[in-house]
Specification:
The complex is a heterodimer of chains A (296) and B (194).
Chain A lengths: L2 H23 L30 H22 L7 H18 L5 H24 L4 E11 L2 E7 L8 H30 L8 H47 L4 H40 L4
Antiparallel strand pairs in A: 1-2
Helix pairs in contact in A: 2-4, 3-4, 4-7, 5-6, 5-7, 6-7
Chain B lengths: L1 H14 L15 H133 L5 H14 L2 H9 L1
Helix pairs in contact in B: 2-3, 2-4
Classes of the chains: A mainly alpha (296), B mainly alpha (194).
Chain lengths: 296, 194
């Protein structure tokens, strides 16, 4: 059977299955008001410590941090002259972080100083994103019984799908590059350097205001880009994976949405998680590099 | 499609439900979580910067150094091998030329020797032949001499018997000269010499 024939056969089976399920179970709506999809992202205090209460997001942050440090230190301690596959991958990642992201955007002296920061940002966000696609028993609203133990339901969650986490990282980045810029050029020099070269006269004042706000807006764009991407990814996986079926009460819809859910899951894990970490780290390096660069 | 069209209304109705189920918490930053994140991030950065990154960098640099070194070494080795090969080639050429020289010299000397020995052999053979010729001639001469004296005495005896007189020395000599002159001894001597 040729590839084309296989694809068409698969599609035909898929369509026939949808029709069959729709005919057998009926295509009737039964709106479900009890299930709230956004509650998947709700944070309940597990250990109450006032504002510093431990919740799901804190747990994910801690897991991500521990995994980042644990994995990297473990691999760093078994670096060999003849690398195995994992080491090759980590070395590739390390070279990407050090040579492409960091050294590609700033001079070597500054790169040496800021590489640990940029590297940690990349790895921390990457691990945060990746563990977001592993189902963990975090849903304390819905519990299931396992040999008498009340286990929270397994659910997908990502620390980076909560605005606070990208925001605080973006804040650290924002403060870092502005401080570096001021240290390199002085307050007045740094503010002046916000105006692009070649702009003079009254236009300069107008452009300065624009550039200043654009600089402040980086705080928003940097954090929201990561947060919204991961939240949207998780939401769409959630909807395709069953939330839509539950909300509308149309069981047959699951035949359509579940394969899409699988495809989207793979897309998120394979591309978005790494891409967003890469973008965050690269922008950090670019901001730091341009803040101290002579010409803007 | 009616199903798709109803999604916004469902989400809206979900939002307008009880206060607890609103979606605004999704975009509301929490100070506590931010502090936790900062703490975890700072610790992670410290630990990575102290225990992970330097070791990885060291290993990578070490590998790079080793690769550079081994490439250099390989380059050096290749150059050395090339030089050695060139040297060998030169030596080989020299040896070949030398051996050719030796062979040709040997051939020349062999030729020379051969012709010399051939000449010597020829000479020797000729000498031997000459000697043999001389010997045989001397022998022939001796035999002819003997024959002659024998014949002479026979002739003298026979003549004395026939003439019943004793010949004087002069008569004998004349008689012998006449008789022997008629016999060609040279024929004998040449046949005997061959």
């Amino acid at each position: 059977m040729s590839t084309r024939a296989k694809v068409f056969t698969g599609l035909a089976i898929y369509v026939v299955l949808i029709v069959a399920v729709a005919v057998i179970f009926g295509w009737t709506r039964d709106d479900n008001k009890a299930f709230q999809p956004q509650n998947e992202f709700k944070l309940d205090d597990w250990i109450s410590l006032g504002v510093f209460s431990i919740n799901k997001a804190v747990m994910y942050v801690v897991i991500a941090g521990a995994l980042t440090v644990g994995t990297m230190v473990w691999i760093a301690n078994r670096m060999q002259a003849r690398p195995n596959r994992v080491q090759t991958l980590v070395e590739l990642l390390y070279s990407l972080m050090r040579d492409n992201i960091t050294r590609g955007n700033m001079d070597d002296k500054m790169a040496a100083k800021w590489f640990p920061f940029i590297g940690t940002i990349f790895l921390f966000i990457w691990f945060s994103n990746m563990i977001g696609y592993i189902p963990l028993p975090t849903n304390t609203h819905e519990k299931f019984d396992l040999f008498g133990m009340q286990i929270p339901s397994f659910a997908l969650y990502a620390a980076t799908a909560n605005l606070s986490i990208p925001l605080v990282l973006a804040l650290v980045v924002w403060i870092s590059y502005n401080v570096e810029g001021i240290r390199a050029k002085g307050v007045v020099g740094y503010l002046k350097s916000l105006i692009p070269q070649g702009v003079h006269g009254p236009m300069a004042g107008f452009i300065f205001v624009l550039e200043f706000f654009s600089n402040v807006m980086r705080l928003m764009s940097l954090s929201v880009r990561l947060f919204a991407n991961i939240l949207a990814g998780h939401l769409i996986i959630l909807f395709m994976g069953g939330a839509l079926v539950v909300l509308l009460g149309i069981e047959a819809l699951g035949v359509i949405t579940l394969p899409m859910g699988v495809v989207l899951f793979l897309f998120e894990v394979g591309l978005v998680a790494t891409l967003q970490a890469f973008i965050f780290a690269t922008l950090t390096a670019i901001y730091l590099g341009t803040a101290v660069a002579e010409e803007h | 499609m009616s199903v798709i069209a109803t999604i916004p209304t469902i989400l809206a109705s979900a939002d307008s439900g009880s206060e607890d189920s609103g979606g605004s918490f999704l975009v509301q930053p929490g100070i506590g979580l931010m502090v936790w994140t900062l703490l975890v991030f700072a610790i992670a950065m410290f630990l990575l910067g102290k225990f992970a990154f330097p070791k990885i960098a060291e290993a990578l640099d070490e590998r790079q150094r080793k690769i550079t070194e081994s490439i250099d070494a390989a380059e050096r080795g290749r150059k050395e091998a090339e030089e050695l090969a060139a040297e060998y080639r030169e030596q080989l050429q020299k040896a070949r030329a030398e051996s050719e020289e030796i062979i040709s010299r040997a051939r020349r000397s062999a030729d020379l020797h051969e012709s010399e020995s051939k000449d010597a052999a020829k000479k020797q053979r000729e000498e031997i032949l000459d000697q043999a010729k001389r010997d045989s001639e001397a022998e022939a001469r001796r035999v002819v001499g003997e024959l002659r004296s024998d014949v002479a005495s026979l002739i003298v005896d026979a003549t004395a018997k026939v003439t019943r007189k004793t010949l004087t020395a002069d008569e004998q000599n004349r008689l012998l000269d006449d008789a022997l002159g008629e016999i060609d001894f040279s024929k004998l001597s040449t046949e005997g010499g061959r």
